[in-house]
Design a protein that fits this description.
Length: 268
């Protein structure tokens, strides 16, 4: 079942404008979620904001956001002030620049969304923008208010529509050279590298969404189904597998890996 549209507005490139609708590309609605309960009464436990000093509950209308500038000293902001800092138009994706599609590293990608024309009249303009991006190998850059924050977004052509990725803020992405720059650039032996390529080739297969399955979710659903039927004891975890020891002889380990792969039966 297709998710409901959560955003409607306009896609604009120079003088070309069309109506569009957007849906999240991912969902966690199928995840098992728990409520916190009182163990004795099994009543729901609710969260309440309380004054850290007096311990008294604080209502929504009495709460205000504050940025600390000193001990017990804050710069105060009302919700309306923060909202007003967004774009003047939160309903228009105005593509103001393009970049080579392959030039933005995956680490900048945040949340994916599907963007489609919202009516028949808009289809031609939408398709012209999408197909021109495919032909030029480019991605569009824009800004939009989403999730109550102004976000930079990346637009990429995908099938008959566009993908809209919210991008991480600049101060969120750490410089990889601060970490990888400390690693030793040691070159492996030619024979070891050749064997490792063989190991990788033997294990290479087509992508399947099942590879990203959630085994904990499956086990929880089995337990829930069993307890609904009145069976209390359900095996929740597999026996712990013996952890391999540190490999000392890498050549021996690579050869054994290839031998095990050759002996293992082909998967159906």
């Amino acid at each position: 079942m297709a998710p409901r549209t959560f955003w409607k507005g306009y896609l604009k490139l120079s003088l070309v404008t069309c109506r569009v609708s957007m849906m999240p590309a991912v969902s966690e609605s199928g995840k098992v979620r728990f409520h916190n309960l009182d163990r004795k009464t099994q009543n729901r436990v609710v969260n309440r904001y309380v004054d850290a000093v007096t311990g008294k509950p604080v209502g929504d209308e009495d709460q205000v956001k504050g940025y600390p500038r000193g001990e017990d000293d804050y710069v105060l902001f009302e919700d309306e002030e923060i909202d007003e800092m967004g774009l003047e138009s939160s309903r228009t994706i105005d593509i103001d620049s393009f970049v080579p599609a392959a030039s933005i590293s995956w680490i900048w990608y945040d949340k994916p969304h599907y963007l489609l024309p919202d009516d028949k009249v808009s289809e031609e303009a939408f398709c012209v923008i999408r197909d021109a991006m495919v032909a030029t190998g480019t991605a569009g850059i824009s800004r939009i208010v989403m999730y109550r924050r102004e976000r930079a977004v990346l637009l990429l052509p995908r099938d008959k529509g566009l993908m809209v990725w919210t991008l991480r803020y600049g101060d969120e992405v750490r410089d990889a050279s601060d970490y990888f720059g400390k690693a030793k650039a040691e070159k492996p032996a030619t024979r070891a590298l050749s064997l490792m390529k063989d190991v990788i080739a033997a294990r290479t297969t087509d992508w399947d969404p099942k590879m990203a399955g959630d085994p904990v979710q499956d086990k929880l659903l089995d337990i829930i189904a069993a307890r609904k039927k009145g069976r209390k004891k359900v095996k929740a975890t597999e026996a712990a597998q013996e952890q391999p020891s540190n490999v000392i002889d890498i050549m021996s380990a690579l050869k054994k890996s290839l031998e095990q792969k050759r002996k293992s039966p082909a998967k159906s």
